[in-house]
Amino acid sequence: MKRLRLAFLAPSALLLATLFLAPLVIVAVYSLESRGAYGGVTPPFTLESYSRILDPLYLKILWRSFWVAGVSTLLCLLLGFPLALFISRSGPRRGLYLQLVMLPFWTSFLIRTYAWMFLLRDTGLINTALLATGLISEPLPLLYNDFAVILGLVYGFLPFMVLPLYTTLEKLDPALLEAAADLGAPPWPALARVTLPLCRPGILAGSILVFIPCLGAYLTPDLMGGGKSIMIGTLVQNQFTTSRDWPFGAALSFSLMALTLGLLYIVSKRSRGEDLL
Amino acid sequence: MRLLSIYAVLAYAFLHLPLLVLTVFSFNHSRFTQWEGLSLRWYTQAFADPALREATLNSLLIGGAATALATALGTLCAYALWKKKSPLFAGALYLSLMTPEIVTGVALLAFYQWLFHLLDLQLGMFTVILAHVSFCLAYVVIVVIARLRTMDATLEEAALDLGANELQAFYKVTLPQLLPAIISAALLAFTISFDDFVITSLVAGVDSETLPMVMYATARRGVSPVLNAVSTVIVLGLGGLILLSERLQTK
Amino acid sequence: MPPDPILQIRQVSKTFPSHKAVDQVSMTLERGELHALLGPSGCGKTTCLRMVAGFETPDSGEILLNGVDIAPLKPYQRNVSTVFQSYALFPHLTVFDNVAFGLRQRGEKAVRDKVMASLEMVQLAAKADRRPAQMSGGEKQRAALARSLVLAPDLLLLDEPLSALDPNLRQQVRHELKALQRRVGITFLMVTHDQEEALSLADRITLLNQGRVEQVGTPQEIYLAPANRFTANFLGEMNWLDDVGVRPESTRLSHQAPEPGVRVHPGQVTQSTFLGDCYHIQAEIGGGRQLMARVPRSQNGYHPGDRVHVWWQAADELHLPQ
To answer: What angle do CA C192, C194, C198 make, to 5 degrees?
Structure first.
């Protein structure tokens, strides 16, 4: 059995090692080197790229990334919790309702972002409709700002919040809510005193699952934020393409990666034995 | 519960209306956001566009190859991990799932550049395919292992008891039962591969421009009715694949 | 004891999409009694309990608590409390906070004395800071009892209170439960499918079958004078000879012919089963009919193949037409 298992694992292990782990190691190494004359990297080894992250110019972008990701996560939680609650209380139609949340998620992220551009831009559907009704005389600046980016991220990652919340709510013993009612708690206090505290693992998992991709988002800020709302993702991409400052891009990537790892570690600690793998 | 139902209707509208509106307007005769009547002119234009056609072919080719490889490797990997857990391996897969795409992308780019210094190769179709296999792998493993977990482990033991060796027990007993899950995983992998833009755009060469790359370039320039039409076709196609995939998973 | 009903269920029915769970059930609980709602699984007893608690709404009929119809009230508006089968202790709260839950919901601020008194009563005061996950089944059950009793409900509902416990613990908990009920003086309505539990614990039993009441009475009445065949069969075992039933413990065996005046059938032993304190001896009498006799261990001398006389006193016969 051992040999068969190893034979089955080997190709995937090789693939992950060369195409996922090795590139990360290279990024780690690059992040410690200096910028080459024509792009690329060159010795000597230095921590300069990391210290450059603390430059006020970049700190501002970092701060905006955290702020945008944080607000998006909070909105996902506020919007996602009632939805997850609704699905978990829908009896036999739970599966269908959950699928309706997940379906847009699996269909092209790019197109979903584009669909919002179609709605939000100056000559988009919302502004056209508002202008036609005479409610406004100038198009509202809906696209190319932080609001648009947050909207895009919430729309994109809401399912990441709903899924773990639903899983936690689904596992909740209905007798606990009956017990709360039996002990004199009407629905709202029961929600606050029993359901919400028992949902904490789901809230934590969902928040981290949304926060991580929001923080590292590239496509949404790029398309919906215009040039004004730069986030870490765009900064990283710039270093490897237009700016050709690989060590700095690598240091940024590696920092983002370390943060992702740390947050994932928290989730895995809290949700013992409930991993997908 | 009534309040909750009203909220749910609004939430589902938020989730589905944007794509629905896009679909409706892809049939609009006008170039602008004013309704001028039904028309298929943007679809005709889209199908006639040689750049779109070539990008679509590239996407299908990359998606097909990456799906085949990722599904084969992922199925074997899932089986091995089901037999005996490996926190290290599972952790690596999980990490590959959660790493921001932009980081995966630039890391792959740096890796390929470094490798090509040694090997005298260039970015192209195969670098894209390999990248896609690597980020689709975890999805395949998750879908297949979920099915394995619900499977009766004694069936294999019965096969061994009846004289099959381990490899035979795998492909005669386990594999046939896994087939719906494997197909489901393949459909999912194809969807993800077909949709990817961030990683692909970083590791693609001149010969391997994909449909999302063309669409991105168009979207950067603004909204175009042709793009509405292409989007509609893709959303319907991928949506169909996903529904099929979920149907197979719950079977 | 003059009749002083605390709970009256009148002509209550409840139909679920799949089946009719409760069909025109009426029953009355006297103040201070321990009443058992007994019946096989799916007989509607849990639905009855849940309607009294307020988790289900009856389709028709009335439920009067102290003379007031509580059917339109929500669970949190009724002064009845439930001990759930799974105990339903809140896993995120300590035992203390579980017991304090209802008091705090009522807006009481100084709950400490009441909570500790209630925990004291079930001998859990020392474990007030534990979480439910850190307690044994018996402790959880007592915590659930304390959580309900601290609210001084008019009526305590218990859903299969002993079923989640280890079998060897049940006997002991039975006695404790009965003693507790006597001490607090609160009316208990207990749902159970275990006839022995009902017989040993309850002051009175309502026997339910397929959503209908079969019989109401004290354990003695129900066991010794069953109103129908279902009751007779459900409580204890029965030998049936057409319309005549006789319990195995009233059925005697002897090698010699018994004294005249008893009902006697000649037969042959077909099977002997050792049950620890006694033997179950099965004997075949004319017409291929099998009768079972319960024979104390010290009196057993019967083996398969033995020719015996199977007999009983006429007074032990139950006449129940099919």
So the answer is: 70
Tokens of C164: 């989640």
Task: Give A260 to chain B, closest Cα distance, Å.
Answer: 7
Sequence-separated (6 or more) residues with CB below 8 Å from residue C60: C11, C12, C13
Give chain C positions within 8 Å (CB) of A178.
Answer: 53, 55, 75, 82, 84, 88
From C192, C243, C249, C247, select the one nearest C225 (Cα to Cα).
C247
What's the maximum distance between 2 C-alpha atoms anywhere in chain B? Answer: 71
Identify residue A157 by its one-letter amino acid code: F
φ and ψ of A66, to 5 deg: -65, -40
Q: Which chain B residue has its CA at the smallest distance from A253's CA?
A: B103
A172, A173, A176, A183: best to mutate for the C interface, most C CBs within 10 A: A183
* Cα separation, C254 vs C269, whole angstroms: 11
CB pair distance less than 8 Å for C82 and A179: yes
- Give the count of Cβ contacts less than 8 A between chain A and C: 62
> Tokens at residue C4, please?
């002083």
The alpha carbon of residue A214 is apart from the nearest alpha carbon of chain B, in Å, by 9
- What gap in Å lies between CA A4 and CA C182, rounded to an integer? 67
Q: Residue type for A153, please?
A: L
Write down the pTM of the prediction.
Answer: 0.84
Three-state secondary structure call for residue A201 = helix
Tell which A residues from 115 to 134 touch C, by Cβ distance under 8 Å: none
C-alpha B21/C-alpha A6 separation (Å) is: 50
What is the distance between the terminal CA atoms of chain B, rounded to a whole angstrom? 31
Q: How far is CA C264 from CA A57, A199, C311, in A?
A: 107, 69, 4
Tokens of A277: 């793998």
Interface of A with C in 144-203 (CB under 8 A): 173, 175-176, 178-186, 189, 193-194, 197-198, 200
Q: Within B99-149, where are the H helices?
A: 101-119, 125-149
ipTM score of the complex? 0.85
Cα distance between residue A241 and residue C287, in whole Å:
99
Residues in chain C: 322
Quote the CA–CA distance of B26 and A157 in Å, as a whole number. 25
Find tokens 């991928």 and name the residue: B238
Q: In degrees to the nearest 10, what's the CA dihedral of C290, C296, C298, C303?
A: 10
- pLDDT greater than 60 at residue A275: no
Residues of C in contact with A194 (CB under 8 A): 90
Contact call for C and B: 3+ CB–CB distances under 8 Å: no
pLDDT in tens, C300-312: 888 899 999 999 9
- Measured over the CA atoms of residue C303, residue C304, residue C305 and residue C308, the dihedral's sign is positive
With contact defined as beta carbons under 8 Å apart, do A158 and A213 qualify? no
Which residues in chain A have their CB less than 8 angstroms from residue C79's CB? Answer: none
Q: Tell me A231's DSSP state.
A: -
Q: What are the structure tokens assigned to A232, written together?
A: 């870490």
CA dihedral sign, ordered B97, B251, B76, A5: positive
Q: Enumerate the residues of chain C whose CB falls inside 8 A of the CB of residue A175.
A: 84-86, 88
Contact A193 C101 (CB under 8 A): yes
pLDDT value at position C117? Answer: 95
DSSP letter (8 states) at residue C288: G
A186, closest residue in chain C (CA to CA): C76
**What is the number of alpha carbons within 13 Å of residue B114 lying toward its C-beta?**
19
- For B165-189, write each residue's pLDDT tens digit: 888 888 888 999 899 899 989 998 9
> With an 8 Å Cβ cutoff, are B110 and A240 in contact?
yes
Structure tokens at A110: 């790019």
Angle at C25 between CA C21 and CA C29, to 5 degrees: 125
